[in-house]
Amino acid sequence: MSSDRFDSLDKYYKQLNFFDLICTILFWLNASISILIFFTNGYQMWREILTFLFIFTTVIFFIADNYLSIYLIPSVESKRRVHLISKSLDVPLDYEITQKYYNNEIEPSIRKLGAHIFENSLFAKEVTRRMCSIERKKILIYAAIWILSLVVRTVDLEFIAIISQTLFTSTLLTKWLKLEYLRIKNEQIYNCLYDLFLLQRDEENARLSAKFLDCFVSYEAAKAYSGIKQSSKIFFEINDTYTEEWERIKEKLDIE
Q: pTM of this prediction?
């Protein structure tokens, strides 16, 4: 999108990005400290210091992660959802302002809402695809270390337990699985909306509106279930490319 793009909701997403970064740092700090504790066996003072740090960072991570997933992400997504409906139906449900965030010239209607979700899903499927690729690499590295520690018989069981705890009882696997779910749903919703706009002239208005609403609900439900904050960094990296792609899709499917 062009440089004159404006979105008053960005201030909420900046707060989201900050807490997401804090949670990521705390997670890997906890994992590192737990491994360091194992290697300080025989150094009681350092072991006690690291254990205290581990307890402290674990509590902070618990608070930050739950604040992010239980309150902050749903709150910001709720604001986005209200604004999406406002822009689609031209009803002032909020006071937020966006410029060049949603890009179609359809008259206020359920069809306009469908076009907004279509555009969102185009970006979302690519953002989540790239995010999944990054998360898979993290999982693969941890899984490789875990399998190697099981195969090598000289590896201490306590170290294996630490790796197992990080891999299986932390948010690492859960986040990856939810992200994969969100990626699949974004792709399905995108494909569904592509077909709807492709065949829109053959559909009755009421039936088409119902299908657009179904896609809208599915899109919002997938985001709510996963509780995943999609990467703003990746979004801005693909922004120009997929804005051009959206313009080509609009022209091809006569979305105006």
A: 0.84
